[in-house]
Amino acid sequence: MNCQIRLLMVFGATICLASVVLAKQGIGYSYGPPYVPSSCFGFRNQGIMIAADNPAVYDGGKACGRLYKVTCLGGTNNIPNPCKRGEVTVKIVALCARCGADEISLSRDAFSRIANLKAGRVRVEYTQV
Fold first, then answer.
1. Is 105 helix (H, G, I), strand (E, B) or coil?
2. Neighbours of 91 (CB within 10 A)
3. Measuring CA to CA, which of 3, 5, 87, 97 is 20 to 30 A from 81?
């Protein structure tokens, strides 16, 4: 019985660590419409809770359709109160060719759910759902 409890504790700790490893931190930007056409879905509208990912994650289109939960962590400039409470789930619909390896570009609507639009860019954490 004691061995089973230890095994469960190790398994639980492993699950917790895996979720931490899967979360990425970086910079989130806002981009405005039009959102169609997109590099993933052409002229098929995917809604407004969408994002474009950096070339490393986009991986030649393999990221198309993935969902990410995004949370604002803090500002990158002097705009007061850059973050709002909560998170937003976005769908990857495009490549953000100008984004660096840890950057994600959110639709204006998605960005405004987690951050002040005046901030323009914020530190974010994003996790694949």
1. strand
2. 20
3. 97
42/37 Cα distance (integer angstroms)? 5
Complete DSSP assignment for 26-81:
EEEEEEPSP--SBTTTBTS---SSEEEE-HHHHGGGTTTT-EEEEEEEEESSS-SS
Which pLDDT tens digit goes with each residue over 73-118?
999 999 999 999 999 999 999 999 999 999 999 999 999 999 999 9
- CA angle, residues 86, 119, 64, in degrees to nearest 5: 60
Distance between CA 122 and CA 44 in Å, rounded?
A: 29
Question: Residue 19 in contact with residue 113, Cβ under 8 Å?
Answer: no
Tell me the pairing of strands 24-31 and 103-107.
parallel
Task: Return all residues near 121 (Cβ < 8 A) that are at least 6 apart.
Answer: 27, 28, 29, 30, 76, 77
For 90, other C-beta atoms within 10 Å of its C-beta total 31
